[in-house]
Write a structure and sequence with these properties.
With 400 residues, the protein is of the alpha+beta class. It folds into three domains: 83-156, no CATH class; 164-236, Helix Hairpins; 239-400, Histidine kinase-like ATPase, C-terminal domain (Heat Shock Protein 90). It has helices at residues 13-79, 97-102, 118-121, 158-202, 209-234, 247-265, 284-301, 355-365, and strands at 83-88, 91-95, 128-132, 136-146, 149-156, 243-246, 268-272, 279-282, 309-317, 321-327, 369-374, 381-388. The strands form three sheets. Strands 2-1-5-4-3 form a five-stranded antiparallel beta sheet. The N and C termini lie far apart (175 Å). The relative contact order is 0.06.
């Protein structure tokens, strides 16, 4: 056959080209899908990166907030007046400064990692007291935190315990006062009868040793009456009745009344009654009770000095005031007793320990003053009373 100048493709070449073209199309299609998937993957990675960055920022912010909260909590715990301890079993996880300070006597090295003090571990879950030296008390309570941890609260309960003791003491004193007042009232009536009969005996013609016995009985009855009056005066709010009282005559009568007691104790009394014609604003019975209490205290203080003298002096001070001074020759007041001279129960020479407290109370009811101390140049106690001359200031109640 004659040649036409064109070659005929070999058999199967067309089919191969078609297959190759199809493969290229499939490749291009796959590459496009792959490229599209890669684009989606990049977008997803970018989204996840953004989310991760956001979460990292949230975590950083929360970590910062937690750090601030932790610092704030540490600041609060450090400023608390009560102690806070977090413990797991016997081990201390954390302890604030107050806990270390309060528990220093029983756990001087208390801190994180240390061992909880045995005296603290044995405390019950309810608030309990832990007694320390020096009359100090700690109140301790515990509460579970979970996961084997507990929080212990420690606070200083010393003030509360002192207040409770004071309240209990006040309650006992009130009960004692009520009982004392009842007994004083019961004793007063038969005592008055005894004083009356002793006075009647003294007015008889009895002489010699019997008269001395009567004087001794009268002196004893007067002391008993003074004690009863002290009890009643201390626990009664009865106002004084101020009236013009001649000072000179009152003091002389009072010294005469006290002289048998002085003789019984083997001491003497000296009086400087001051100028005549001076009147003071006073309740005679109450003021006599003051002088009686002070004189009896002086007699007792001079019991070991038979030649002792109680000197009572009066003078006008500043025109409107009168000063009474009682000076004995006893041992005086002990220096450590001076701050509590006028406390009920104090006594320097035995007795009920009510005299000075009652005297100051009566003087205050008179609008007057009372001071007590020791003589500067010699031994002995000095009591100074200050009263108003008549008429009393209008501010004082009960002025006649």
């Amino acid at each position: 056959m004659p040649s036409t100048g064109q070659q005929t493709p070999p058999p199967g070449a067309a089919a191969g080209a078609a297959a190759l073209a199809a493969a290229f199309r499939d490749f291009n299609l796959a590459a496009g899908v792959l490229q599209q998937s890669y684009g989606h993957l990049q977008a997803e990675v970018a989204r996840l990166r953004r989310e991760l960055q956001g979460k990292n920022r949230d975590l950083a912010r929360r970590a910062e907030e937690n750090q601030r909260l932790s610092a704030r909590l540490e600041q609060i715990l450090s400023g608390l007046p009560c102690g806070v301890i977090v413990a797991a079993g016997k081990t201390v996880r954390a302890a604030n400064p107050a806990a270390r300070r309060l528990l220093a006597p029983v756990a001087p090295d208390l801190d994180a990692g240390s061992v909880l003090p045995p005296r603290l571990r044995t405390t019950s879950a309810a608030e309990a007291l832990l007694a320390l030296r020096g009359d100090r008390y700690l109140a301790i309570s515990a509460a579970p935190l979970g996961q084997g941890e507990e929080v212990w609260i420690v606070r200083d309960a010393t003030g509360e315990q002192r207040q409770r003791r004071e309240e209990e003491r006040e309650r006992q004193l009130r009960a004692l006062a009520e009982m004392s007042a009842v007994l004083a009232h019961e004793i007063r009536n038969p005592l008055a009868s005894l004083e009356l009969f002793a006075g009647l005996l003294a007015e008889t013609s009895v002489e010699g040793e019997a008269r001395n016995w009567i004087a001794q009985v009268q002196a004893g009855l007067r002391q008993m009456a003074a004690t009863v009056n002290n009890v009643l005066q201390l626990h009664s709010g009865a106002p004084v009745r101020l009236a013009p009282l001649p000072l000179h005559e009152f003091l002389r009568a009072t010294v005469d009344f006290l002289r048998p007691l002085a003789e019984q104790q083997g001491v003497r009394m000296e009086l400087e009654a001051g100028p005549e014609g001076v009147e003071i604003a006073a309740d005679a019975n109450r003021l006599r009770q003051v002088l009686f209490n002070l004189a009896v205290n002086a007699f007792r203080a001079m019991a070991r000095r038979p030649d002792g003298v109680l000197r009572i002096a009066a003078d006008v001070e500043g025109g409107r005031r009168v000063r009474l001074t009682l000076r004995d020759q006893g041992p005086g007041f002990a220096p450590d007793a001076l701050p509590r001279l006028f406390a009920p129960g104090f006594s320097r020479a035995g007795g009920a320990g009510l005299g000075l407290a009652v005297c100051r109370q009566i003087m205050r009811q008179h609008g007057g003053e009372m001071d007590a101390g020791n003589a500067a140049a010699a031994e002995g106690a000095v009591i100074t009373l200050r009263l108003w001359r008549w008429p009393a200031p209008q501010a004082l109640g009960g002025v006649a």
